[in-house]
Amino acid sequence: MKTYNIILRGINMVEFPKKITKSAANLIKRLCRLDNPSERLGNQKNGVKDIQKHKWFEGFNWDGLRQGTMDCPFAPRVDGPLDNSNFDDFPLDTEGPPPDEESGWDLEF
Fold first, then answer.
1. Are 10 and 16 in contact (CB under 8 A)?
2. What is the tens place of the pLDDT at every residue in 65-81?
3. Which is the most buried residue in 9, 30, 38, 88, by most CB within 10 A?
4. In this structure, which long-range contacts are made by residues 68-77, counting pairs with CB atoms below 8 Å and at least 24 apart in sequence?
5. Is the dihedral of CA 63, 68, 71, 75 positive or negative?
6. The pLDDT of residue 75
7. How far apart are the C-alpha atoms of 23 and 57, rounded to whole Å?
8. Helix-strand-coil percent breakdown of the chain, rounded to 5?
């Protein structure tokens, strides 16, 4: 319910962390407009071009992306196809699946 209430407040009520730039926050807010979805960035007559022209994407190589010629921004060192050293360790889930919910709400399906 907490998440639902946060969603209902709308994107304009979200306080972004300081490390999020103003242009990034603006892009996110314009992509997530709740009051009038038809005015969301990318959902108007220019479509995706409006997103591509947003200030946050200034200097981005869209042609390189389309052609697959862009250099990746980060290439981790990998010692083979099974090397998972670049991932965090998480404990194994030993609890198993949750118990069945038996209220009967789904009997008619």
1. no
2. 999 999 988 999 999 99
3. 30
4. none
5. positive
6. 92
7. 9
8. 35, 0, 65
**Contacts by 63-67, CB closer than 8 A, 24 or more apart:** none
Look up tokens 């639902």; give the residue: 4
Which residue bears the tokens 């869209």? 62
Give the angle 26-31-37 at the CA atoms, nearest 5°: 125
Amino acid at the residue 75? A
> How far is 31 from 51, CA to CA, in rounded Å?
9
pTM for the structure as a whole: 0.65
What whole-number distance in Å separates Cα of residue 83 and Cα of residue 93? 21
Contacts of 31 (CB under 8 A, 6+ apart): 40, 41, 42, 51
Beta strands in 51-105 (DSSP E): none
Could you please report the per-residue DSSP string of 9-44? Answer: H-GGG----TTS-HHHHHHHHHHS-SS-GGGSTTSS
